[in-house]
Amino acid sequence: MVFVAIALAVALIAADVAIGTEWTMKHSLVFGVGASGARGMLSAIAGSMMTVASLTFSLTISTLATASSQYTSRLIRNFIRDRLNQFVLGFFVGLFAYCLVVLRTIRAGDEAPFVPPLAVMGGLLLALVSIGVLIFFIHHIAESIQVGIILRRVTNETLQAIDELFPADVGEPVRVVPAQPGAPPDRSAADAGEDVHDGRRWHPVPAQKFGYVQALDAKGLLALAAKIDGIVRMSADIGSFVTPAGMLCEMATASPPEEEHVSEARSMFDIGPARTIEQDAAFGIRQIVDIALKALSPGINDTTTAVMCVEHLGAVLETLAARAIPDRLRAQDGTVRLIASDRSFDVLAGLCLNQIRRSASGNIAVMVALFRAIGGAGRQTMDHARRRTLSRHAGLIADLARDSVTCSDDVVPVMATAHAVIAELDSQ
Predict the structure, then answer these.
(1) Which of 125, 145, 165 is the last residue of a domain?
(2) How far apart are CA 269 and CA 357, in angstroms?
C-alpha cells in the first residue's frame, strides 16, 4: 500500500505537469492554494498520519495482549493476519508517504514556482477518508476481541482447513473391508499392507531442521513414490514437531534412494517456527479447546464462553462426521504408493471433546452442550464406527455427570439428555 500511494502521488504530479496549472485560476476556491498553503496542509496531514499510525499500532498491540491473556496466545497470529487491520495500518503509512512525495515537488520563491493542484487535492481527499478509516478501525478492533467473533473466525478457518486436510483426489483409496458385515474394519489388514513392499527396505528421510510441519504436498509424495517405483510412508503429519534427526517420512525402495529423491521428499514438507491453520484443522480445534479450558479454569470460571466454544466445536464435529476421510493407504494405478498419517475421525473427535470433558466436572451447562454437540454430529453420519465413537464419548460424559453432580434435581435433566443422545446414536 505504501508503494501504491507513492505511485499515485507520482502519477498525479505527472498529470499536473502535463496539464499545467493555469486552469486552477478558474477554480481558485478549490485548487487555488499557494505553495506555502500546500506545504502547510501536506505537512499537517503527514504529521497527523504518523500520530494516527502510532495510535493504531498501539491499539493493535493492546488488543493482542488482551486476547492473549484472556483467551489464548495462539490467537495472536489471527489478529496479525487480519486483512482489515493490515489495510488500516497500510492506509495511514501510505498517506504519510504520499504527502512526502508531493511535498518535495512544491517550489516557490526564486525557484520556478510549481504547485501540483491535483496531487495536493488528492492528499486532502485522502485525509478526509482517513477520518472514516480511523472510526472504522476503532469499531473493528473493539468488535474483534469479542469471543463470539473470535470463535467464528477460528471455526471458519478450521472448516477451510478440513477441506485441505481431506482432499478426495490424492491417489486412489485402498478400502479395508471388514471380515463380517457390520463388524469394524480389520485394521490389521491395513497394517499388513504397510509391511508388504516386495523385498524393498525402508530408508528414512530426516528433517535436518527443527520446527513444526506447517504444510505438506501429499500429491507430490504420491508422484515421487511412483517415480521411484516404491512406497512412501509419512512419519510426520501437519502440525507435528520434528527435530533435525527426526523422520519426515520413509521411502521403501529396492536400493538406497538417490540424494536427489531424498531432497525432493524433504521439500514436500514445509517446516516453520509455529503451527499454522491453513492445512492443520487440528490446530484450529486446539485454539477453540484452549479458549474453553481457560474459561473453565477456577480463576476465570466463565461458563458462557466455554459453552460457546463447545457449540462451535459442534459445528466442526458435524463437518467431520459428514466428511469422507481417506484411508491411510493411497494407491496409484492399483499399486499402493503412499501410506499417510492417521487422521481418523476418532482422533479428531477426541481432540474436540476429551480435554473439555475432563475440565467440565460438575458444570451442567457445559456437559449438556457437549451432549448436544455429539448428538448433532451423530445426525450427520450413518457410519457405524463413527456413531460408536460418539456414543462412547457421550457415555464418558454421562459417567462424569453421575460422579460430579451431587444435586439430584440437577443430575436428572443431564442424564435425560445423555440417555436420549446415546439412544439416538445406538439406534442405527
Answers:
(1) 145
(2) 34
For strands 329-332 and 247-253, give the pairing. unpaired
**Count of structural domains within the chain:** 2
In this prediction, residue 189 carries a pLDDT of: 39
Residue type at 280 in one-letter notation: D
Closest CA to 98 of 131, 130, 120, 114: 120
**H or E element that contains 111:** none
**Range 78-82 contact pairs with CB under 8 angstroms and sequence separation of 24 or more:** 78/150, 78/153, 78/154, 78/157, 79/144, 82/144
Determine the distance from the C-alpha atom of residue 90 to the mean position of all C-alpha atoms in its chain, rounded to a whole number.
22
Task: Please indicate, yes or no, if residue 171 is contained in any of the structural domains.
Answer: no
User: How far is C-alpha 403 from the chain's CA centre?
Assistant: 37
Predicted TM-score (pTM) of the model is 0.73
Say whether pLDDT at 186 is over 50.
no
pLDDT in tens, 312-338: 999 999 999 988 777 777 777 777 788
Domain boundary among 145, 173, 201: 145
- Tell whether 57 is covered by a domain: yes
How would you classify the pairing of strands 231-234 and 335-339? parallel
pLDDT in tens, 209-220: 999 998 888 888
Range of the domain at 396: 281-324+342-426
Structural domain contains residue 155:
no
Task: Please report whether residue 184 resides in a domain.
Answer: no
Q: Given this model, what pLDDT does residue 341 score?
A: 78
d(C-alpha 189, C-alpha 193), whole Å: 6
Helix (H, G, I), strand (E, B) or coil at 425: helix
- What phi and psi, each to the nearest 5 degrees, are found at residue 362? 80, -5
